[in-house]
Design goal:
- Homodimer.
- One of its GO terms (molecular function) is ATP binding.
- This is Pyridoxal kinase PdxY.
- The protein is of the alpha/beta class.
- The chain has a single domain, classed as UDP-N-acetylmuramoyl-L-alanine:D-glutamate ligase (3-Layer(aba) Sandwich), CATH 3.40.1190.20.
- The chain contains nine helices and eleven strands.
- The strands form two sheets. It has a nine-stranded mixed β-sheet with strand order 2-1-3-4-7-8-9-10-11, sandwiched between helices. It has a two-stranded antiparallel sheet with strand order 5-6.
- The two termini are 19 Å apart.
């Protein structure tokens, strides 16, 4: 639920992201969790690789912005954009693709003014810094984030967007408020590790103009790709299903932790979405979110 609007039944999300044949990142991490929540997904792929780039080697095409635009135009020609409840975007290969995505958001909003735009502003992370092409960080801060209703940055991305460090809870709250000042009404901060938190925990912070909530889960000793993509999808899905931000945050964190726990037990670098699929709908352990603002 956002701005008092509850949506239930017949939900559709247009998801514009990368895809892989092997493993789960981008649309390959977002579509299945949303489907398990009972939401129809219209995936538009921006690349189709053999596997995610974390392996260091991969094959497959990057779709030109014009090709992605053609797919999006074709969907529009089916006359279904009025039934689209949200647009979800993730990694953007270049600024031209970003412009295509924002164009699609505009057409969806024209057909359905209540549709949401959830932008996962993928740019970089702690340790690696930026890993996107030049111009993308500026495009995210100046064009994509201001156009979004919901944004889901990790801690590194939050700090860039806010222009300030987020090393304590107070810092993170102030940074989230600064990002809301750019336009979005809801900010979900993922992979939050702050100095004033307990050891062995990782957190998510969800902030709106009405308040903020924090949830922590045990920190697992693994590094995977795609968890952020699944997180953004689940959080958006729960909001569209009419759940409040506090409940959406708790459910999302609990499901993602269950998936990562299954991944850790299996000793694999690919998140185990299929093996842990029941946890996407009904996580075995619920980590409660607490109000912090």
């Amino acid at each position: 639920m956002i701005d008092g609007v509850s949506r239930a039944g017949g939900l559709n999300i247009l998801s514009i992201q990368s895809s892989v044949a092997y493993g789960h990142v981008g649309n390959s991490a977002a579509v299945f969790p949303l489907q398990r929540l009972g939401i129809e997904v219209w995936p538009v792929n921006t690349v189709h690789f053999s596997n995610h780039t974390g392996y260091g080697e991969w094959r497959g095409p990057v779709l030109a912005a014009g090709d992605v635009e053609e797919v999006l135009r074709g969907i529009g020609e089916r006359g279904v954009l009025g039934a689209c409840d949200a647009v979800l975007s993730g990694y953007m290969g270049d600024v031209s693709l970003g412009e295509v995505i924002l164009g699609a958001v505009g057409r969806v909003r024209e057909a359905n003014p209540r549709a949401l735009f959830c932008c996962d502003p993928v740019m970089g992370d702690e340790g690696r810094g930026f890993f996107v092409r030049p111009g993308i960080p500026e495009f995210m801060r100046e064009r994509a984030v201001p156009a979004a209703d919901v944004v889901t940055p990790n801690q590194f991305e939050l700090e860039y967007l806010a222009g300030a460090a987020a090393r304590t809870l107070g810092d993170a709250l102030a940074a989230a408020e600064a990002v809301m000042g750019l336009g979005p009404g809801t900010v979900l901060v993922t992979s939050l590790r702050r100095r004033d938190a307990g050891e062995g925990r990782i957190e998510m912070l969800a902030a709106t103009r009405e308040g903020a909530w924090l949830v922590g889960t045990p920190l697992l000793p693994l590094e995977v790709n795609g968890a952020g993509d699944a997180t953004a999808a689940l959080f958006l899905g729960h909001l569209l299903l009419g759940r409040g931000v506090e409940e959406a945050l708790s459910l999302t964190a609990s499901s993602v932790h269950a998936v990562l726990e299954k991944t850790f037990r299996r000793g694999t670098r690919e998140i185990q979405l299929v093996a842990a699929q029941e946890s996407l709908v009904s996580p075995p352990v619920r980590f409660p979110a607490r109000r912090v603002s």
